[in-house]
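G., the chain you wanted modeled:
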Amino acid sequence: MNRVRTLAPALIALFAGRLSAQCLPLRLPIGASTRGIAMADANTAGRDDDVIFYGPAQLAVARGTSASVERYSDRLVGGALSTVSRIASGAVGLGAQIIEGRNEPQCNLVSVGPNGLFVSSPAPRDVTRMLAVIGGAGTFKRFHFGASAKYAGVQAGDERTSRLMFDAGVSRDMSLADFVPLTVAVAVQNIGTSAADTVQLNTPLRAALGLTSGGPVGPLDLAVAAQVAVERNANQPLFQHGRMIGGLGLELGYAWLDGYNFALRVGERVPPTRTDIGHFTFGAGLVLDRVTIDYAGEGEVGSRLAHRIGIRLR
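Predicted structure as C-alpha cells:
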C-alpha cells in the first residue's frame, strides 16, 4: 500500500486546467446529513442518526436509520448510511460514507518539487473517499458523553492513503426562560490526524460548538441550528491560527396530523477554504409517520446546484 505523505508549506496541491468545471476539487465534500446540509451543515447538536458524522455525544438521544445520496456534478457523486440503536441508558451508532469522482484527461495536479519549483502532472482519473464510523454515547447527570472511532481512506489513481482517527464530544439539553428548549453540543473531531491527512483525506483537527432550539410560532414549528467551528491550518496551533467556520440554519414546519409534518429549510454558512461549495443552502422534509423524506440543495462555486435526497426510518 502506497501512502501519500507529501505536504508543502502554503498550497501543496491545486487542480489546474478546470475546463468546464470538470476537474475535481482538491478537498472533496464531507457533508453527510440531508437535513443538516439544508440547514448550513450546522449539525453538531443534531438529533438524527447521521449526527454520528458530526459529533458523537448526541448519539445518546438520536434514533433511526437513514440513507442518502448526492449528485454534486456530472463527475462527482456521494452517499451515506447511518443507524443508531438504544442500549440500556446509552446508544451505539454506525455510519459509512463514500464519495466517487472522475477527472477529465486535461486536469493537472500541481505540486511543489524537491527543488522548490512547481511541478505539474496529470491528475488521477478516478478518486474515491471512504469513511467508516462506529461510536457510542451515554448520559450522566443530564450530560451526554460520546466517543467514536473512524477509518478514513482515499484512493486516487494507484495511490492510497488511510488513517484511523477518533472523535469525542459532550452535550446537554436545557431550557431558556423555562419554556424554550436548547441543546448545546461540543465536539472535537479527527483526533490523531496529521497535516498531510488534512490535504489528502480532508480530515483536519476540528473543534465545533453547536446549538439547536425552537418552538411553536402560531400554527407552525420553528427550529434553529447554529454552529461555529475552528479547523487546524496545517501544523499551526488550532485556536491561534485555525480557520473559523460558522453556519446558521432555520426550519419552518407544519403538522396537519400527529406524526405528519412538512418543513422548509434554509441555511447560510462560511465554507471551509479550498473547497468548491457555496454559502447558501436550502431544502425540505416530509414526515409520514415513521418515514421521513428529505431534500437538500447546495451551490457549488462556478457550477450548478448539488442535490441530495435522503430517507430515514424510525
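The chain has three helices and 17 strands.

Shout if anything looks off.
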